[in-house]
TrEMBL record:
Compartments it resides in: Cytoplasm
Function (record text): Digests double-stranded RNA. Involved in the processing of primary rRNA transcript to yield the immediate precursors to the large and small rRNAs (23S and 16S). Processes some mRNAs, and tRNAs when they are encoded in the rRNA operon. Processes pre-crRNA and tracrRNA of type II CRISPR loci if present in the organism.
Classification via NCBIfam families: RNaseIII
Protein name as it appears in the record: Ribonuclease 3
Gene Ontology MF terms in the entry: ribonuclease III activity
Residues of the active site: D38, E104
UniProt cofactor(s): Mg(2+)
The enzyme's E.C. designation: 3.1.26.3
Keyword line: Cytoplasm, Endonuclease, Hydrolase, Magnesium, Metal-binding, mRNA processing, Nuclease, RNA-binding, rRNA processing, rRNA-binding, tRNA processing
PROSITE patterns linked: DS_RBD, RNASE_3_1, RNASE_3_2
Quaternary structure and interacting proteins, as annotated: Homodimer.
Domain DRBM positions: 139-208
Length: 215
C-alpha cells in the first residue's frame, strides 16, 4: 500500500492503512484511531481559536463545535476526495458519517506517526482558512427556533439530564429534542453553555437528515 497521503509520508504505513479501513472490510479498522483523532482535532482547534480570538468560553465552544462538526468534517473529506482512499467492502455505501470518521482516524494516525506538529499543520491547512468567519451571527439555539417557526414545528425542549461536580465547579448535561424525534446532548459549566452545545449538535443532525435549513 502507498505510504503517502495528502502530502504526508508515513513511517509506519500500517497505521495509514488501519485509518482508512472500514469495519465492513476488517475487524482491524479505523475506530480506535478515530477516537484519538477526534481528541487531537479538538485540541488543535481549541488552541488555535483561543490564540486567535478574544471570544468568551461559550462563544469558543460554539465556534469549535462548528469547526469539528460531522458536517464540516464531511466537507473537508470531500475536498480531499477521501472516498477514493477508503478501504471498505464492495457493497458498503460511504456515508457522511463514515467519511467524517475516517478523516478523524487519519488525524489520529498522523499524530501517532509524526506527532502534534504535523497534525496542527494538516488541521490548520484544511480546517482553518484566512477568511474563516469567527463572528457568531446566529447561535444554534436561534437557528433551531427559526427552523421550527418556518416549518411550523414545536419549539425545541431543553432538559437537564445530569449535574456533576462540586458546587463551585458544576458540569451540566442538557438534552435538546424536537418533535421530529431528533435529540442531542451538550455539557458545560453553565446551563447556557450546555444548551448551546446541545443545540449545535442537534442543528448538525437536522442538516444531516436533510431537513430544510438556512443561515
Amino acid at each position: 500500500m502507498n505510504s503517502n497521503l495528502f502530502g504526508y509520508t508515513f513511517k509506519n504505513p500500517k497505521l495509514l492503512k488501519l485509518a482508512l479501513t472500514h469495519r465492513s472490510q476488517s475487524s482491524q479498522n479505523y475506530e480506535r484511531l478515530e477516537f484519538l483523532g477526534d481528541s487531537v482535532l479538538s485540541l488543535c482547534i481549541s488552541a488555535h481559536i483561543v490564540h486567535s480570538t478574544s471570544l468568551d468560553e461559550g462563544q469558543l465552544s460554539i465556534i469549535r463545535s462548528k469547526i469539528v462538526s460531522k458536517f464540516n468534517l464531511n466537507k473537508v473529506a470531500n475536498t480531499l476526495s477521501l472516498d477514493h482512499h477508503i478501504i471498505a467492502a464492495p457493497k458498503q455505501t460511504i456515508s457522511q458519517n463514515i467519511r467524517a470518521d475516517v478523516l478523524e482516524a487519519f488525524i489520529g494516525a498522523l499524530y501517532l506517526d509524526q506527532g502534534l506538529t504535523a497534525c496542527s499543520e494538516f488541521i490548520f491547512k484544511h480546517f482553518i482558512t484566512e477568511s474563516f468567519d469567527y463572528n457568531i451571527k446566529k447561535d444554534s439555539k436561534t437557528r433551531i427556533q427559526e427552523w421550527a417557526h418556518k416549518n411550523k414545528k414545536k419549539l425545541p425542549k431543553y432538559s437537564v439530564i445530569e449535574q456533576t461536580g462540586q458546587s463551585h465547579n458544576v458540569i451540566y448535561t442538557i438534552r435538546c429534542e424536537t418533535c421530529c424525534g431528533l435529540q442531542a446532548t451538550g455539557s458545560g459549566r453553565s446551563k447556557q453553555i450546555a444548551e448551546q452545545q446541545a443545540a449545535s449538535s442537534l442543528y448538525e443532525k437536522i442538516m444531516e437528515h436533510n431537513y430544510e435549513t438556512y443561515s
